[in-house]
Structures are given as structure tokens and as C-alpha cells.
Amino acid sequence: MPGNAYESALARFFRFVIAHRLAVLAVYAVALPAAVYYATRVTQDNALERLIVTSDPDYIATKDFEKVFGSGAYVVLLAQAPDVFSSGVLARVDALETRLAAIPGVQPQSALSAFRRAKGGFTPGPEQAAAFRAFVSGTTLFKEQGLVTDGILAIPLVLRASGESLALSPSKGPGPSASKEVGALLAEIDRAIADVERDPAPLTGLGKIGEPYVNRYLDEDTARETGRYFPIFGLLLLVLNLVLYRSWRTLLAFVITLGFSVAVTVGYIGLTGGTLTIVSPLVPVTILVTCTATLVYIHSRYVDRPAGVSEEDHQVFALVNKFTACTASLFATAVGFAALAVSRIPPIRDLGIWVAVGLVMTWVAVFTLFPALQRVLKTPTRPGGAGESGFFHRFAGYLPGFSYRWRWALVSASLLLSAAGAGAIFGIPGLLAPMRLETDGLEYIDHDTALYKDTRRFERVIAGLSLTEVWLSGPPASLTDPAVLRGLNDFQESLKPVARTVADAAVETEPSGIGSVAGPTTILRMLNYLGGGGDRFPTDPGALAKLAADLELLLPTEPALAGFVDPTLSQTHVAVISHSADNEAFRRIDAVIRARWAETAGREPALAAFTLKTVGSGPLQAKISYHLVPTLVESFLLTVAIIFGAFLIVFRSGPARLMAMIPSLFAILVMFGVMRVTGMTLNVATILIASTVLGTSENDQIHFFYHFLEERRRGSVASGLHHTLRIAGKAIFYATMINAGGFLAFVFADLPPLRQFGILTALAFGLSMLADFTALPAALWIVYRERPDGAGPVVEPKPIG
Length: 801
Hints:
By secondary structure, the protein is an alpha+beta fold. The protein has 29 helices and 13 strands. It folds into 3 domains: 4-48 and 217-437 and 622-784, Up-down Bundle (Multidrug efflux transporter AcrB transmembrane fold), CATH 1.20.1640.10; 72-175 and 178-209, no CATH class; 475-609, no CATH class. 62% of the residues lie in helices and 8% in strands. Strands 2, 3, 4, 5 and 6 form a 5-stranded antiparallel beta sheet that branches. Strands 11-12-8-13 form a 4-stranded antiparallel beta sheet, with helices on both faces. It is elongated, with a radius of gyration of 33 Å.
């Protein structure tokens, strides 16, 4: 505990704040509008590239690739019907495509669009429907790209923002993130198809898929979650105050302090140009629950005023008495979140910094704004300890004996459960693999939505939606070399899934992980087919030489070809669609790509001059997965070290420093065990649980040990436990209810990661409190080697005058 001189200086500071309470309120009244102004300037962006630092080599390579071949948004409409070739279905799809093509910046690229080009138009009717069926059936190209499958006629739409020509092929799958302009185009598309969605007949439905739709869903739902959370938390706060303090004036003091803390935190995000992401709702939530718990600790100490002590003297005493513990817990939490700055995933790194800064500003408000509000609003006290809970008084008398009798069982059970939880997340060599990481953005949306179901259905059709671009760069005009085109076509064909017959005559697909492949020769084959020729790539030297000579002439007039070949005819790319949603899967795909390129280049020397890079969303998703584990491990270890350092400063007792960590570590590890048993995965939200719980729940342990050592120095373990439970037991219980209830509000979230985060975090807080009242006292008996001495209530310290 601090020395008397330190306490005296601190007491004088709080007397100054109370004496100048109106001036303090005036300062906050001036600061609040600025905080609100900057808070309103914060924007939202849930795009994949937000998860990658801009200095990452894969990110830089992908951006360089986009400078050459362009970047844009790409969505797919799925016209669903039992017979997609019926004249009625094609008439409805034709009318829909015509309407979509009239939207500036939207370009349909469906099989029906290709038919119109090849045949000079399309007139709905049985004859044209039969011709379209024959046209599509005459080649494998449409099926390879997923444009026509059983029950689905896909309508890919290329979105061109600001008039930018974005020549993308159907093979590229859902494209990059939706900008504001792309968002406006999505709104135009929604209006154009609204009548078909309401009444799709003769279609059975019209699906919408693509990363722009996923990003828009996440943007809108993240904003809804934040707005939905505040009323729920407000109700929790109302109930808390009515149960604990039964005072509307106390409730108002809480609300004003909390409102300023959240406003100034979000205002800081706006002031620094920050952008909210899918995990950003955790910022105000963490500030709210941490600030509320701290206010409960302070006000619970203040509200039970000894008889004969003035309100001002007792307020100063309560503030001084809780200052060290509250300061240590807030700063340990802040620095614990700041440890997330080691993450290479920007949203997680930003969240850690924002919460840390917000908690520092919350600490200032808690010890200046809140005391001023207590005096101005005249928040009531209960003289003579009239409000002491009979339950907690009995609990304080019962717990020491109980924890002593069952000390070995309680400690052993907590250690065994913690070990099981550690095995659940990190794995057991030879028995259990580590917990799976999830980086697929589609998994972040509600699985019951049509967007999720339609995307997963289409993904099965084309065997994946993860896009890896194989970027090939060679000498100028090298793509006009017939040998180069032949080699590129051989490379593309070598990547395609190969069906082969095994001994029992069953058909087996080579397990390369690749679903579909498209490149420049795919477009050349399509153009040849549309022109009335076959869809095979020419092998005759004369025909191949003619194709190479025509390439330069076709490039300015064929947007689809321009999407695969740069103007200097030196660079091209091959789009590879796969299921590689994590780092390990991508590495396998990347190894297959490089091995097949080496084999092809060995057969075709003309390819030797080309360099190969793999870019696109596939490598970026792999990099996110790769960095999630260091985020979990490094930030968690840093948080442990930092909190232990805080305990080192606050407590001189060596055992106290170590045992204070028991409840939080127990809660976190058991929670990971629950995740494993229930099949939950680590993702960009749940990866934060360990640091969040450890950084927040250690508040309880700091208050527990602060008051335990306060009495233990002059008494025994039993008297220390009794004193702690009387002074802080009720506050620990209600603070845990605040923490758990605050995060549990996310159970109503539509986004699975936030819902899982809320449930698991609330569970962890409950487990931490359970350990506070069981394993922790049991460990104290073991470490101090004492027996219960039957100590009763102790005399309260005298208030500081």
C-alpha cells in the first residue's frame, strides 16, 4: 500500500477536484462536443485487404498486379430453375440482363450474353431456346467457369467504378472490396432485380453472391450490432444501479461518465483517421464494461458510509482507498490491449491501441469527472453500513473454512481443467491437432442468410471461391510467340483437375485442391468458339502462328482478353480457383502451381524467360491465417508479462503475484476447451478473447489481493479472506456480472464471430469469478500453510481526513 505522504497528497488532490467540481464539469462539457464531432467522422470498412498491413510483400505484389490488369468489383446473380434452358426462363433472364446492361458501369458476362454476341442477338422463344441449349452444350468452357450448371444459370456482372474499364473474366470469381461507388452500383442492381426477387416465376429464385455483397452485409450488420448493443447495456446498467444503489442520481453519474468515456474513445479514432472493421464494436463495449466495473468498485466503497463521517471525508477516503487498485487494473488492462500492437493484422492492432488509449482517458474521467458528479448530484450513501448484504456477510464467514477443507481438490481440479484447455487450443502431438483458424470472410455472416447459402452452393459447383492469380512476366511482345502461347495453354491444362480411372473402375479426381482454371488461352478458345470455330486450342503450327499474329489485333477490341494480357504483350496471368481458405491449404496449391510451371517450362523452353508470382485474395487469406497464431500467442504472452509486472508493483508478496493470475488463466484455458468441444473456431474476433478476458478479469484479482494483503499484514489468511469478501466480494460479483452481461449482449448479434465472442467471453468471466471464490482462496491456504483461526469481522480502517 502507498505511504502516508503519498496518501495525503492524493487526498488533497481529490479534495481539490471536489471543491472545484463545477469547473471540472465545465472542462468536460467543452471537450464533449469535439469528441462527438470526431466520432461522427469514423467510417466503416470490412474488406479483406483491411486485414493486411500495407507493407506486407503479398499485399504489395497484389497491388502491383492490379496496376497492370486493373481492379474492380465482381458479383454473380444466380437464376435458379429446374430447366434453365426453357423458353420462359430464358425470356425472364434476357429481360433481366437487358435491364442490368442499361445501368452505367454494369456489364453482364453470362453465357446468354455470349450467345447474343455470337448469333447477333436473342429473341425469346422455343426455337432460340433450343439454339441456346445447343450453343452451350457444344463446348465445355461454360461449364468449366460455372456459367451454366444443373439448375443454375449464372449472370456474372462486372462493376466499373468512375468509368474505369475493368475487364474481368467470369473465371475471376467474386472480386475485391466494394468502394462507395461500387456500393452505389449494388444499390442500382438491387433496384433493377427487385421485381424478380419478389416474383421470380418461372424461376424458382434469384441468388446474389460476391465479395461486394459480403462486405456490404458486414458493414451494415456491424453498424446494427453497435446500435443494438447500447440499449441492452443501458438496461443492464439500469438494473445494476437499482439493485445495488437504488438511486437515479447515481445512475445519472454513471451514465454521464460512461458516455464521455465512449465518446472520447471513438472521437480519438475519428481524429486519427481510423476506420472501423468487423471487430470494432468490441472497442466501445470494452470501454463500457471496464469503466462500469471500475465505477462499481469505487462507488460500492463510497456508498456504505460509517456513522459519524461526513460525505466529503468518506468520498475522499473511498477514492484514495480504491485509487491504487483501480489504477493498477485499468493500466494493466490498457497495456494488455496495447500488446495487440504486435499483431500484423491491422484491425486487431488498431483495436488494441484504441482500447488502450480509451482506457487511459477513462481513468482520467473516473477519478475527476465521476467524483465531481457524485458531489454535484449528491449521490446518496448509506450511513452506518446499513446497506451491507446479509448474504455476503454469511458468505464471507463460510468461504474460508470451505476453501480450506477442499483446498487440494479445488486446486487440482482447476489445474487439470486448465491443462485440458491448453491441449484443446494448442493440440497434443500425435493425438490432437491445434485449433483450426478461420479466415473465410463468408463465415463471418449469418449462415441462415440467402447470401451464405447461395455462395456455398455456387462454391460447390466451381469447386471453391478462393482466387489465386498466377502472374507471369516476360520480355516485351513475348506473348506473340506461338511457342509461348502453346506453353501457356499446356500450363493451364496441367492445373485443371484430372479425372482418372483407378483399378476398380471408379473415377477419381486428382487431389490437387484446384477447382477451375482460366487464362489468356481460355479467352482465345472462347473467341474462336463464338466465331463459329471449335473450342479447342490449335496444335497445328500454321493455325497457332495465325492465332499469335491475331493476338495483337484482338487485344484493343476484346475487353475480356485485355483483362488477361497487358498492352505490351509481355505480362499475363492465370486465374486459379480453389478451396485454399487457410495458410496450409494455400501452400499446397502454391506448390502445385510452381511444380506444374517448372514441368511445363522444362518441356517448352520459350517459357524460361518468364517470372512467376502468386497474388490475389488466396495468398492474402493465407497470410491472414498465418498471422493469427502470432497474434494470439505473442499478444497473450505480452499481456501476461505486463499484468504480472503490474502485480509486481502493487504487491510485494511473491506468491500473490503468481496466484493472482490463476483465475484468469483458468477461465481462458477452460473457455478454449469449450470452444473445441462445441466445434467453434478461432477467427478475427474470437482470437481476441484471451487478451480481452485476461486484460479485463484481472481487475477482480487486483482488488481481491489488494484488500487481502491490506488485512493479511496484521492478521491471518482467514481474517484476510473475510475482510476481502466484505469489502470487495460484492463488488467483484457485480463487476463480473457487468463484464459478462455486457459482452453477453452480443448473443443477439447476427454476425457469428461477434455472437461467439460474446458467449465465450461471458463464460470466461463467469469461470474467472468462480475461481476467485474457490481455487484462489484454496491456493492461498496451501501457499501460506495456515489453518482457519475462526477470525471474525475486522475493524475498518479509519477514513482519511
